[in-house]
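User: Reviewer 2 asked us to show a designed sequence for the structure in our supplementary figure. I'm pasting the structure tokens here. Could you produce the per-position amino acids so we can include them in the response letter?
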């Protein structure tokens, strides 16, 4: 048992070994894949209204905007990195694009506020960018 632990210690922690790099890559590759998939822009998605509820700034990260939206009568809550360009008002309504495969993946557009004249959204959202949003 001691010999096995010594061998594992060598392969994992001793940087002169090539196997520890392989082990480390195998260990962290799912994390990078998850981050890439979760943070990648949505290629195919519908649009709906997001209700921005909170704007906060974690100490070790970028400013974030927290929002919720409804798709097919299911409520989803999400956060996105907040770009400093637009002036965001909390609480307010903004356009959000959500993924067709997994409705919990979304991207909010704080530069496109939803006018008060828009009251309802189709249950599955708008398939294309609405006319009122193209002007912005």
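Assistant: Here is a per-position design you can include in the supplement:
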């Amino acid at each position: 048992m001691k010999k096995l632990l010594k061998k594992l210690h060598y392969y994992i922690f001793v940087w002169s070994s090539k196997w520890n790099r392989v082990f480390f890559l195998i260990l962290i590759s799912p994390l990078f894949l998850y981050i890439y998939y979760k943070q990648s822009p949505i290629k195919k998605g519908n649009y709906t209204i997001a209700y921005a509820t909170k704007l906060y700034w974690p100490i070790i990260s970028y400013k974030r905007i927290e929002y919720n939206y409804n798709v097919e009568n299911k409520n989803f809550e999400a956060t996105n990195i907040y770009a400093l360009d637009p002036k965001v008002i909390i609480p307010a309504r903004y356009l959000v694009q959500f993924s067709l495969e997994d409705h919990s993946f979304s991207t909010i557009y704080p530069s496109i506020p939803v006018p008060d004249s828009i009251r309802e959204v189709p249950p599955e959202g708008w398939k294309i960018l609405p006319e009122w949003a193209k002007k912005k």
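For the response letter, you might also mention the following. The longest strand covers residues 45-56. The chain has three helices and five strands.
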